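Exercise 3.2. Students should predict the tertiary structure of the chain below and write it as structure tokens, then compare their answer with the key that follows.

Predict this chain's 3D structure.
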Amino acid sequence: MYLKYPNLNTLSDQLSWGHYVELLSIDAELERNFYEKQTILEKWTVRELKRQKSTALFLRIAASQDKKGILDLAKSGNLIEKPEDIIRDLMFLSF
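Answer key:
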């Protein structure tokens, strides 16, 4: 913790210990700062932070031309508009 945040005054009181545990696993300082700021701005839970990290939000935004569109999609999550959005492959089992 001290190596990533040597000045303890920079720690936000809006983040929990669980948030910091997730943020400490990110080696790149720019990426860690991005997720930290987005977590505070969007009020992400630890679970949401993990999801955004696992879907590589930072890398998608860095590589994208439509940065606002990616952030909007990250805010809304997966929208369920029709049954096919939930059910991927139908399986019929008969015993």
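Discussion points: The mean pLDDT is 78. Residues 22 and 28 are 13 Å apart (CA to CA).
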